[in-house]
Amino acid sequence: MNSPRLEVDLRKISHNTRTIVGRLQRRGIRVSAVTKAVCGHPAIAQAMLNGGAAGLAEARLSNVKRLRRAGITCPVTMIRTPMLSQVEEVVQLCETSYNTEVSVISALGAAALRHNKVHGIILMIEMGDMREGILPQNTRHMVRRIMDTPGVALKGIGANFACLNGIAPTDINMRTLSFLANDIECQFRLLLQTVSGGNSANLTWAFGPHATGRINDLRLGEAILLGVDPITGAHIDGTYRDAFTLVAEVIETDAKSLRPLLRCADQTIAKNLFFPVISKTTRIVLAIGEQDTDAAGLSMPANTKFVGATSDHLILEAKDVTLLTGSEIRFQLGYGALMHAMAAPDVETILRSDRSAPNAHDAHGPDKHLASV
């Protein structure tokens, strides 16, 4: 089998989605499954939908096109403010988009009219992350501008947390967002279909004991794909953490030392003469690097230590492990490492859906994935 490769267990992704959807459903919150980390992979998106996601959310139009070409017809929301150069395609491919700019909303409206459509707008409110969103005090003004724009309809409001500045959502943030939703409905006599409280970073709040107010939607990617809370790194109860496994091949294994073999008058030569040391530590070189993934975001297998990575090589030190050239090592990934691996042209994606798996509570943690094949 080719390497490097990403092995994807679709059954575990469906299970994770179903588990989280079920818990949030009891709190009156639906899930929009975010597919940007997997580059809009249709089979992974379908696994999320099979698990009960209400729709899909994407940040890149190329990924939306991939989903539509594969025959996925469910609602897809563009969660990054559309580029003016892409409004025509956004209107044709997405039912709704998240917005902050009057000029973009006007262009979306004009494009929608050309295609005999009404495009849905979710207005993003700045709640502390300082990435995108209008200031709360400008909400009424923006709502009026949207309502005065032909071809678009205000479908809801949303906020974002813990992406740029790591600002975690609080109960006060969520109550403020609920207040804004109520204020808009009262002032403009309309019903907001969506009040999107944020992303996977909201789960600690959403699973908590307090009232959820008007929040009825969360945009979830990392929590579903990796089974972790991005704020704390804690495992989400009942989910699998190993739906994705990155596999890389060993291309060199040897003992290494940085001490010169002998004294030499020519220091240039001396720097390049080494002798092996008697040690239980072996240095392993793998055929994968920073062009393929975020090496710092990989969970190191048991008895190994991360040394470093270059564009094409990953270096580990291993204790009491014997691996031959051609052996394979398996890694679990963080969110950034997963994003890079899915986008890397030389990392093959292998889909699995028929393998039995252990109970999610007993699934291997990040330190149990060294395997010689």
Give an account of the 3D structure.
The chain has 373 residues and is an alpha/beta fold. The chain folds into 2 domains: 10-226, TIM Barrel, CATH 3.20.20; 244-362, Elongation Factor Tu (Ef-tu), domain 3 (Beta Barrel). Helices cover 28% and strands 23% of the residues. It is built from 11 helices and 16 strands. It has helices spanning 10-25, 42-50, 61-69, 87-93, 102-114, 139-147, 171-188, 203-206, 222-226, 267-270, 335-343, and strands spanning 5-9, 30-34, 55-58, 76-78, 96-99, 119-125, 152-159, 194-196, 217-220, 244-254, 281-286, 298-299, 304-309, 314-319, 328-333, 348-352. Strands 1, 10, 11, 12, 13, 14, 15 and 16 form an 8-stranded mixed sheet that branches. An 8-stranded parallel sheet has the order 8-7-6-5-4-3-2-9. Helix 3 links the parallel strand 3 and strand 4. Helix 1 crosses helix 2 and helix 4 (87-93) packs across helix 5 (102-114). The longest helix is centred in the middle third of the chain and has 18 residues, at 171-188. It is elongated, with a radius of gyration of 24 Å. It starts with a strand and ends in a 21-residue tail after the last strand. Mean pLDDT is 90; it is low at 361-373.
Number of domains: 2
CATH class value of the largest domain? Alpha Beta
Strand content: 15-25%
β-strand number: 16
- Tell me, what's the shape? elongated
Proportion of helical residues: 25-40%
User: Average pLDDT across residues?
Assistant: 90
The major pleated sheet works out as: 8 strands, mixed
Mind telling me the C-alpha Rg?
Answer: 24 Å
CATH topology term of the largest domain: TIM Barrel
